[in-house]
Design a protein that fits this description.
single chain, mainly alpha, globular
Length: 323
């Protein structure tokens, strides 16, 4: 995924309406899965949170000239609410996943916990917001999760970390789920443009990571090519591309649909790992991907059916947005 295209698209949401939603979701999958590959690559060169801190710093510095004028026109209350969303979506999610791995949770198991996002969203929406989902949507989410478990089964292992550490990736997943629901239900008057929102998220998350990592060691960048590549990779593909496309897709579709699409990120991550680290592929991975695709199709079709019921005279573009 080209980060420049993401910036252009994010700065002109009306132009992105011309891009079919499935294409945006396909780009999201490539960019989102790059984050796990970047984290795997960076482990050989630096502490995980040090890389995450510097990727936030880099994105904050690069985006500031593009968003400075718009930020001055945003009310303090809007900034505070969107900063809270950013802390949950970026700092909470990434800290939970990376710290879990750093403390001994196997990467495959941490990724599986992260892929519980659609179920976490559904449970939070039902428990906190009282939202009801059709049985077919629930069935699609369960089938999609089964496909993830099937496809990643060979890469899963139970590590030697203390039991409480396994809760960190789960808390990270729930943090992103809460941020997603908060963002989706934020009044239009308090929403921000995609680029200012991404800048603010990286800014406040960078401060959070500075406090966490700074309490454990130095925040100075490591003078090595591997560290520089890790920061550039995760800043461009994973942050600008991954998070930018995630919020963009949320403006076009329901939270359940966008999260369910991410069920396909593990097999795509494995393809990345095969290409970059020569890790083996298997028919089991392909079968798991196919099962997940069936579940996603069930979610998408059922939500499209519900959208037609609610807006029988709506336009095709409107029918893409649910919730």
């Amino acid at each position: 995924m080209n980060p420049t295209k993401s910036i252009t698209c994010a700065s002109s949401p009306s132009g992105c309406q011309l891009v079919p939603l499935p294409l945006l979701e396909a780009a999201l999958l490539v960019a989102w899965s790059s984050g796990f590959v970047g984290a795997r690559f960076s482990l050989d060169y630096a502490p995980p949170l040090l890389v995450v801190f510097w990727r936030c710093v880099l994105v904050t510095l690069l985006l500031f000239p593009f968003v400075a004028r718009e930020l001055r026109q945003i009310s303090p209350m809007t900034l505070v609410k969107n900063a809270g969303i950013g802390l949950l979506a970026m700092a909470g999610y990434l800290a939970g996943i990376t710290q879990g791995i750093a403390l001994g949770v196997p990467a495959g198991l941490a990724a599986l916990f992260a892929d519980l996002l659609p179920m976490g969203l559904a449970l939070l929406a039902a428990g906190l917001l009282g939202q009801r989902m059709a049985p077919r949507v629930w069935a699609g989410l369960v089938i999609g999760l089964a496909g993830v478990a099937l496809g990643t089964h060979g890469a899963l292992a139970w590590g030697n970390a203390p039991l409480w550490v396994y809760g960190l990736p789960l808390l990270g997943m729930l943090s992103l789920a809460a941020a997603t629901l908060w963002q989706k239900h934020l009044p239009a008057s308090q929403s921000m443009g995609l680029l200012p929102n991404l800048w603010l998220q990286c800014c406040v998350s960078g401060v959070a990571f500075a406090l966490i990592e700074g309490s454990q060691g130095s925040l100075a960048p490591i003078p090595s090519t591997g560290f520089a590549v890790s920061v550039l990779w995760t800043a461009g593909l994973s942050t600008v591309g991954g998070y930018g496309l995630y919020w963009l897709c949320l403006r076009r579709a329901s939270a359940t649909r966008v999260a369910s699409v991410l069920y396909l990120s593990p097999p795509i991550t494995m393809v990345w790992a095969w290409a970059m680290f020569d890790e083996p592929l298997s028919w089991q991975m392909a079968l798991g991907m196919a099962v997940s695709a069936v579940g996603i199709c069930m979610v998408v079709r059922e939500e499209a059916r519900e959208a037609r019921r609610r807006r029988p005279h709506g336009t095709a573009a409107e029918s893409e947005t649910v919730g």
